[in-house]
Amino acid sequence: MNIFKVKELMIPAEEYCRVKKETTLHEAMAQLVIQGEEKGLAHPHRDLLVEDDDGSIIGKVTMLDIFKSMEPGYFKMDYKDHPSVLSKDYVQKIYADFNLWSEPLSTLCQKCAGLRVEELMHTPSKSEIINEEDSIDKALHSFILGLHQPILVQKEGRITGVLRLGDIFENVRETILSCETKTA
Description:
alpha/beta, CBS-domain, four-stranded mixed sheet, three-stranded mixed sheet, 8 helices
């Protein structure tokens, strides 16, 4: 089995969609579409890297960040008190207690379209960033334990790329298919 390093599967930061922290969500979504068309991608990236005025990556905006920004009630919750495995009853209770998604989607979209990405971006902690030289199994372990996807990759303290779970899966799939099966 080939043991790859993170740098071999990551998408370099230069190739990822990047926006300034002052960019509105509407502008950012339009930029994702434009970049996808320019690069001929059937499915454009769904995440954005957020940079400061110097061009350094300071955070990311994921699909989940966008969905949460559409319903401000999520910011009222204290996630550290939530159980890691959520029962259907618990999820429904939270939904009702916080009156989530009570407005039409079109209204929620209008409200969040003008937000600046810095208002909804996820600023990763040091534990949420891996190094280019880390092994893929270390990255996979981070994904399985619930690290906020995608994972940012660094070299010498500077963000150099993005590692997506789907890219690791493709590598694992290829590895499994290259193995011979053994019968018991």
